[in-house]
Amino acid sequence: MSEFTPTQGKYLSFIQAYIDGFGYPPAESEIAKAMKVSPPSVNQMMKTLEKKGCIRRKPQTARSIEILLSPILIPKWRKRITTTQRVWMRSTPTKLNEAGSNAAVYRFKITLKETQPPIWRQIETKDVELKKLHDLIQTSIGWTNSHLHCFSIGDKRYTDPRLIDDAFDDLNETSYAGVRVSDLVSQYGAQLQLDYEYDYGDGWQHEVRLEDVTETQPRVRYPRCTDGDRACPPEDVGGVWGFVEFVEAITNPDHEQHEELLEWSGPFQPAEFSPSKATQQMKKGLPEW
Questions:
Q1: What's the Cα-to-Cα distance from 68 to each of 12, 50, 152, 164, 282, rounded to whole Å?
Q2: How many angstroms separate the Cα of 34 from the Cα of each of 72, 118, 187?
Q3: Do 152 and 198 form a contact (C-beta atoms < 8 A)?
Q4: Tens of pLDDT along the chain (289 residues)?
Q5: Angle, in degrees to the nearest 10, between helices 28-35 and 6-22
Q6: Which of 21, 101, 190, 221 has a CA that sits 20 to 30 A from residue 122's CA?
């Protein structure tokens, strides 16, 4: 994905909103007026955005700006937009139709931190609420939704409203009800990265990084797991360090705890992982507890 600065994002926001509202691109003079800068400054910005692969223009052709990024990556323009013909104002953010052929598809890479070799998954999903993203993370990795969880972005912590308890007031957690992936992309941009914690006792920390935003492909059903590596640790194994000890024992028949752990967890192959099986679990969803 092309990366852009907040200032460049503001230009892209105006251009995208103008195109959405009027059906054709703005003139550079209109961009200059909206940005409150000089026309030469706009021209220089257009050259920069072209070099970054964010837009393209036809040489010597007015109103030829074409944005090359998915609209979902571009911040929403909240101010009034004018042309010499009429005035248009966005009243509500435009959302892509999930059922349509141009619905946005978000590709995430989920990495279980501090695991070596790393345990990770790559998943694709249409726009969903964080509640559903939690579901997809759990089922793609292989967790069982048996413990508390939360998402973090900076100093904000989001969790299931049913899990918010007075006993955890010091965690400053807020409900993720109604918070969608598209909302976070609009707020934080294409470099969106979340921390996801599961099981506050074992402390499984995950990096959830947005890799790309594309459009739906014909005959492809979402969500799906497209790649990944290694098996999910058993629940309640004691976090990363407990898992290291578990693998040492479960893979060594001569280890003094081998039989005990084999009886506790059943057969375990650390390197085993199937994207197709993970996709099946993602479509099936979490068990109801």
A1: 10, 9, 30, 41, 31
A2: 21, 47, 21
A3: no
A4: 567 898 999 999 999 988 887 778 888 888 888 898 887 788 889 999 999 999 998 877 778 899 998 888 888 887 877 554 344 444 344 443 444 445 789 999 999 999 999 999 999 999 999 999 999 999 999 999 988 999 999 888 999 887 776 445 556 788 999 999 988 988 888 789 999 999 998 999 999 999 988 888 889 999 999 999 999 999 999 999 999 999 999 999 999 999 999 999 899 999 999 999 999 999 999 876 5
A5: 120
A6: 101
